[in-house]
């Protein structure tokens, strides 16, 4: 079945450090890929997305490129801030039939940024 | 523009009881999905509603049921609660038009604790 694999956390970085969170996927067909962020005690917020191979999604300094050849969608940021501390979920969507879709999530990677 | 809204935000129930959670989708959205997020895990797809019918279902028992109303709002019902049902329940909505690239927006969630 379809699945998303993320690097295990937690990830602890100093402010202004470079961030990479690895994500790979297994899917039948051509998924769309997403990164969602969850701040403590809150729901999920869409961070960025890419809908086809070689697309780059970007938002708030975060970037991820849809790599079909390596089935990956790694999240990067050049300089993290304390306010980026959250749990990051890699996710994919595929049509279910009838055009409906569901989101398949990874386990989530907790990021802690220290001053 | 209000996003996806859910109620209640927190609730505590006893084993064997029944619970109803409510969701209003983002304005203009007609499709509602429900997800269960256990502590430290990624969200898991429960089911999806469109035109007041359940269209797709994840691997959840019949104790989990739902409803969608003509105004697109939705309810999630869980009967015979178990301790393992303690989780964050997330409602998600998406726009008309089919395709795996449509962004799915999530609410803040309802925290259910079963004691």
What's this model, at a glance?
The complex is a heterodimer of chains A (115) and B (115). Chain A has 115 residues and is mainly β. Chain A has strands at 3-6, 11-14, 19-21, 23-26, 32-38, 44-50, 56-59, 62-65, 75-77, 86-97, 100-105, 109-114.
Element order, helices and strands of chain B?
A: EEEEEEEEEEE
Q: Biggest sheet of chain B, open or closed, and with what strands and sense?
A: 7 strands, mixed
Question: Major sheet of chain A, described briefly?
Answer: 6 strands, mixed
> Radius of gyration of chain A over alpha carbons?
14 Å
Q: Helices and strands of chain A, in N-to-C order?
A: EEEEEEEEEEEE
* Strand percentage of chain A: over 45%
Q: Based on CA inertia axes, which overall geometry of chain B fits?
A: globular
Fraction of residues in H or I helices of chain B: under 10%
Number of helical elements of chain B: 0
- Provide the residue-averaged pLDDT of chain B: 92
How does the helix and strand content of chain B classify structurally?
A: mainly beta
Q: How many distinct helices of chain A?
A: 0
Q: Which regions of chain A have little confidence, pLDDT < 50, spanning 5+ residues?
A: none
What descriptive keywords fit this protein?
heterodimer, A: 115 residues, mainly beta, six-stranded mixed beta sheet, four-stranded antiparallel beta sheet, 0% helix, B: 115 residues, 11 strands, globular
